[in-house]
Prior knowledge:
Layout: H1 3-8, E1 13-15, H2 19-45, H3 51-74, E2 90-92, H4 101-112, H5 114-119, H6 124-138, H7 143-160, E3 167-178, E4 181-192, E5 197-207, H8 219-229, H9 237-247, E6 251-265, H10 275-283, E7 292-309, E8 315-322, H11 328-331, E9 335-343, H12 344-353, E10 362-366, E11 372-375
Helix pairs in contact: 2-3, 3-7, 6-7, 10-12
Amino acid sequence: MxxxxxxxxxxxxxxxxxxxxxRRYFAKxxxxxxxxxxxxxxxxxxxxxxxxxxxxxxxxxQKLAASFRALSHKYLMTGRVDGTLPGAPSFDRHESGFPVxxxxxxxxxxxxxxxxxxxxxxxxxxxxxxxxxQIVGDLSVPTKLQFALSQRxxxxxxxxxxxxxxxNDVDGQWVADKGDRRQFLLHWAVYDTxxxxxxxxxxxxxxxxxRPLPSDDRRWPEVRAHLMAQAVSGLKLLTIAQGFDIDFPxxxxxxxxxxxxxxxxxxxxxxxSGPIAQVLESAMAPPGEDWALVWxxxxxxxxxxxxxxxxxxxxxARQIWQLHPMIGADTGTSRIERMIVxxxxxxxxxxxxxxxxxxxxxxxxxxxxxxxxxxx
Length: 376
């Protein structure tokens, strides 16, 4: 690793200015992200997620993978082209391991103009033909043409869509009818700018309105705007749920979950303190297995519903929330569960070291052939 790269990795927000290092970084997430969908499938098989919830989570993981693929195209020629372009990817080396939120914000802007960029570019076959002619005719490496092709692939991927963006607006799926109410699963996601981590929200809602919520052109825009404005990691789930319950009298939130996908720890790329640093250092895992990813689920469940006065002559239903007896007042949750996904080598090091705080952590070990092995 060059001195320039070592210097860049000193700060919390590091840049990957060498081509090989940038490729290794994106290749790491290319290996990691499919395992998160397998975790969702395992939780479904255990009955801890419904089929719909597992499918929704897997969809966000796929979007996240699409974002990483797009960024890998954008920065494919990092360190190999003279000048300011293509730049270098920046990531949060200390608390996250994921790209900084600014990367996804820029990607959203690029996506809005992808068709204009592509209109001014040569086609992929034409670029490849020029590369061959330069290699054969000039006996030189066509780095500028390679850069042009990488940018074309980047904008093509953005034009195709399906990326996890800084804001992923609220969507809703009907679940069932319950008496005079309809049950919906509302879900949305953000790339949190404070933690530089992808965060998914799931809310179970009973709808007592005359029209189904997602097709109600009066309530639905208000609900979406309200929930997106509350998608901030610093807010407690209790604060979000109570505010929603008060602002929408005919909507009754029954459960709210916040799922944080990360941080990603790697001895090669990130700076970590405490037991996880010792685990990864002791594992001495090869590049493809030098990682551990934490998955945190904050869960808030309604215990019961009670009528409260709303004006002089009417009442509305309000939720009474179940808070954890030990941590609920501080965290605003019914429970918090943390899980960790990691390859065999780091898991073996963890088992041998048996560090404090890891005994109650739910573990998913990636075995041979990519098999996911739940460990109690």
